[in-house]
Amino acid sequence: MRLINLHPDRGTRLVLGLAPFGALMLAYLIGSAVRLAANPADKLLPALTTLAASIERLAFLPDPRTGDILLWADTLASLARLGWGLGLATGGALAIGLAVAVLPLARAALSPLVAFVSMVPPLALLPILFILLGLGEVSKVALIVIGVMPVMTRDLALAAHALPREQIVKAETLSASTWLIAIRVVLPQILPRLIDSLRLQLGPAFLFLIAAEAISADAGLGYRIFLVRRYLAMDVIFPYVAWITLLAVLLDIGLTGLRRRLFPWSELRA
Amino acid sequence: MSRLEIRNLWKEYGQQIVLENISLTIAPRAFVALVGPSGCGKTTFLRLLLGQEVPTRGEILLDGQPLPREPGPDRGVVYQRYSVFPHMTVLGNVMAGPEMKTARFLGRRFGAARRAIAEEARAMLAEVGLAGAEDKYPAQLSGGMQQRLALAQALMMKPRVLLLDEPFGALDPGIRSDIHRLMQRLWNETPMTVVMVTHDLKEAFTLATRIIAFERRRDRPEERDRYGASVGSDIAVWPPRSAGGPTIWTSDYLPDRDDPILWGPTTGTTRPQGA
Amino acid sequence: MMTRRTGLLAALAALGALTFSPAMAEEKKDFKIAWSIYAGWMPWGYAADHGIVKKWAEKYGITIEVTQFNDYVESINQYTAGAYDAVTVTNMDALSIPAAGGVDTTAVIVGDFSNGNDAVILKDGATLADIKGRPVNLVEFSVSHYLLARALDSVGMSEQDVQVINTADPDMIGAFQTPEVTAMVTWNPMVSAIVKLPGATKVFDSSQIPGEILDLAVANTETVKDNPDFAKAMAGIWYDTVTLMAADTAEGAAARAAMGAASGTDQAGFEEQLAATKLYAKPSDAVAFVTSAELGAKMDHVRKFLFDKGLLGPSASSPDAVGIALGDGTVLGDGANVKLRFAPDWMQAAADGKL
């Protein structure tokens, strides 16, 4: 039988899916053992027991200096920034994207600006943001908004623009005003796309969050990583990276579930 | 009521002339079928009636008044595809028109007003044979059911003119004859004028009271841009049909192409006139 | 099928082990030094560019590659991971990063100490006591943090009295001009720019804790033990260049201008930074400091600070966890776990002209 026709069954698929994770794990364990044999205090690839002890210290025991449980304090600080940033970006993208898609006048006025702004590399703006908005929360949230909003806006405008012209005309024959076309015909049909767009922007949003926190903060996931990087505390960095990844994966799954629940029709294909 | 007058209508896109000097009068409650080869401008003509396009020259009058330059609730439309909203349920689609007409800010009604509209919508759905499908989404319906839904949605607005753009072109033959029967009944019972674009002559003869064929009088490649289409044939179907009155369809018997009654002498000719 | 998969895993694991294996000390001929831009370390770049490195490497029949890092912490991390044989680092970071990470490290050269290059700056405040209750922007866990701790200590306060906000060093000057920043600890060249801003007052600087913030050139202990020629070459390069730099001659001025340009300022700016640096231009001075009892007292402050901050590692139960061998032969802390060594040997050789 040709390889192209060889389909794994359920069990094999599970094994094949887990195998690369297992291989990475094993490579880590061997690398760690080799390094620790040469230098018991090595920080680069800590042993699993060291990692476990660090996780316990970070996630379950209060920090002796501040009394906070570091992982939760950092997670809350970061998620608050992420929530503000993504919330504002989503709202803004929705408003501008809808206007650009529905109103030819708004399209003429705004789409060159949006196209231009979406090409600005957000991280390059960071020093300007810090000067203009200070080192506090505002500039971090602003970086996330500037980083993800133009892309989402363009994506939404494209999605709205791709709606069949027939639907708009049909709505007009059903006595809809421009406003009603926007909120009852266009908006509900681009909301599923908005959620997908948001899912795709989670990665960049985390990137901007961590970049902003690396520069100035007193709590946050990115802050902690860049702080302990100073003394090569991989036993902190590895769990934090895993935790950020897990958070992003959970957010992604949550958003997909939300879309299925709120917009059941978006799963149907005629 | 709902007399359409088209006077010296021209439609050009830049250098290209699509429709050339069309003058027609369509009687109230007529059922006009527009036929013709692809690219002869029949869909453009329909869009002009709809207000989706604006004439380059000439005018269209509805009961003596110039048509508004954009689509409105006096003219309903059913397309071959994309006529219904995929994000609304069947009931939601049919309620959309009355809801948006009366609730100008939210486009939704609540309480008793909503129940009244829903009642009306359910009756309309029963009328087109969609009772029981109220909570489905359009993507869960067959093609024929989607077109029934589109008709119901359009008729909720009680349009004076119903415009159909190849509405049944994508349906299987059996389903098509069912929906033809429905269309005949709706036209008969609803005070409206129907203009339908079709490429199916059999369908045109089955449904219409009058068949207008568009054609390009000069259709050599080098002439195609500079000469548009105009009315080639204008055929009144015999025996004359009129909506609302007793017709042969009041019986359960549906005439078909091979039926000798329909193929008696006609006042027009099916052969194209002119060059 | 199964054996092939196992084979693949073994290959992957071997690859991992290979990539991450630490530098093993042995006799070798090729050496790598990492350095980063700072007033006290500019001679390394100058020496590399002007043939001084090549001259000494050839004398000992070895090769030395000198790499400049734009990121100081990354250069130390690379050294700790084993990618470099030597690195320029402060005494504090040498203890908290490579030494606490189990990499036995020897200070081959003690070049200078910060004598005003690091400072606590307040906006609208006259004395250090005004810092109470303010947020303080600094690079957390850096010498700035240490300076703050020592400053607060000097007026009977502790870190509980302020709120530390980690801020990246390239953003310090801009940050100081935003309204919410009212206190800052940083180093030169930022300090000299910030004190010129309106409302800025320097309330404490490193000249008040002399000899505690040392600029070193350190090397892997195993490497210099097996290859003393490398350490000798380092000392040769260093004192050749420093002698030139400190000379009040046209060549000296040219060297200072070149180093100033390389650090983003000019000759005057560089000389201003040097003025806030106590340079041990003569190897005998460095030897005298390293072998004095003073060094132990200074390092004791540093290691206590690091232990307080948890920077000696989560398993460290006291400041003694990481042993420090001082230049006079005594050991501070755990003698069985000496990971940082101050060795006067090669500076002594330079003083004696025996290189």
From TrEMBL, chain A:
Keyword Transferase: no
Transmembrane segments: 12-38, 82-106, 113-135, 203-225, 237-258
Sequence ranges assigned to domain ABC transmembrane type-1 in this UniProt record: 79-259
Top-rank taxon: Bacteria
Membrane topology reported for the UniProt record: Multi-pass membrane protein
Cellular component, GO annotation: plasma membrane
Record GO biological process: cellular response to sulfur starvation; transmembrane transport
Family in the record: Belongs to the binding-protein-dependent transport system permease family.
Protein name, UniProt field: NitT/TauT family transport system permease protein
Source organism: Rhodobacter viridis
UniProtKB/TrEMBL annotation, chain B:
Polar residues: compositionally biased ranges: 266-275
Disordered: region residues: 248-275
GO molecular function, one term: ATP binding
Signal sequence region: none
Claim: Repressor is one of the keywords in the record: no
Keywords, in A-Z order: ATP-binding, Nucleotide-binding, Transport
Residues covered by the ABC transporter domain: 4-241
PROSITE patterns associated with the record: ABC_TRANSPORTER_1, ABC_TRANSPORTER_2
Protein name: NitT/TauT family transport system ATP-binding protein
TrEMBL record, chain C:
Cellular location(s): Periplasm
Signal peptide annotation: 1-25
GO cellular component, one term: periplasmic space
Keywords for the protein's UniProt record, in alphabetical order: Signal
InterPro entries membership: ABC_transptr_urea-assoc_sub-bd
Family to which the UniProt record says this protein belongs: Belongs to the bacterial solute-binding protein SsuA/TauA family.
Name of the featured protein: NitT/TauT family transport system substrate-binding protein
